Amino acid sequence: MPDSIRVKTINHVGIPIWDRRASLKFYRDVLGLQVIPSMVDSPHIVWTKTLDGTMVHLIEPSDGENLGAPHIAFEVEDFDLAVTVLGESGYSELTEPGERHDGQKYVFVDDNDGNRLEFTTASGLPTSSRVADALGYTTDSGTNEVVNSPSTIKILTINHVGLPITERAECLRMYRDLLNINVIAHQIDGNSLCWAEMPDGSMVHLIDTPHSVGPHGDGRQHVAFEVADIEVTAEALVEAEVEIVEGIGTRHDGQQFLFVYDPDGNRIEIATRGDHSQTTRTADENGYTRENGVLL
Ligand SMILES: [Fe+2]
Ligand SMILES: [Fe+2]
To answer: What is the CATH number for 165?
Structure first.
């Protein structure tokens, strides 16, 4: 069997934004993410993190005019192996590997639906002397200006990322076959999603093209933040005048969820951790899920 890539977890997500002042009112002041020093030279990226260190990079247009695409960064066990395997895989837009100020190595590639994926080593944040101001603008030295969020919301980590796809079987050549992310039974109704799980329980949800879209458009691309208490979180969102557009709902594994939008229209889910360890559902190799033998 050829060497294959082992994905450990989600290292960070990249979310396109227009203006950090507006975005930080949402991500820092309402959701409680902490601004941390950036380890890249581009001044257009605000680095923030959840409580377990999983990062959220808010990315302003580098040319002031064009929003970039969102991306998800997977942390892999063996970075050099990942670069080799990706290089031989035939996927497009594979970039030259680079290295950040904290020693984190990275490379980008697109899946066959054009979803931007990044692969990284672990982050070395504690060893850097770089400092950030309140808006995340970063310099090599000085005093770190940590702004404590007034929020009561505590984002523990990233629970999953939703990615829009077209051809599921094709798409799984990347996530299942190349990255070894484990396809599991999903815990929703219908069969329009494929759930795939990393070793630490964080997930990628690959979402088929819908027949029609709802009032908010195509909401497949989203980031799901994990909290311990959805009710307390919902109350804090209402208090902050953030509209809850869907939820609170509950999935078959007990996972509770709700949806909001950030100031730029990025769809954000807030979810608790489900427990699907005892599920009676089964999935085929493409994630099509059955309950009591019946296809959902
Ligand atoms: Fe990134
Ligand atoms: Fe989701």
So the answer is: 3.10.180.10
Instruction: State the burial class of residue 214 (Cβ atoms within 10 Å of its Cβ: 0-12, 13-18, 19+).
Output: exposed
Instruction: Among the bound ligands, name the one nearest to the CA of residue 95.
Output: 1
The boundaries of the domain holding residue 225 are 1-296
CA distances from 276 to 86, 169, 249, 282 (A): 31, 23, 16, 11
Residue 69 Cα to ligand 1 middle (Å): 11
**What is the Cα–Cα distance from 182 to 19, expressed in whole angstroms?**
37
pLDDT digits (tens, 9 = 90+) for 32-59: 999 999 999 999 999 999 999 999 999 9
Q: Which pTM was predicted? A: 0.96
**Measured in angstroms, how far is the CA atom of residue 258 from the centroid of ligand 1?**
25
In the reported structure, the alpha carbon of residue 280 is separated from the centroid of ligand 1 by a whole-number distance in angstroms of 36
Domain count, the chain: 1
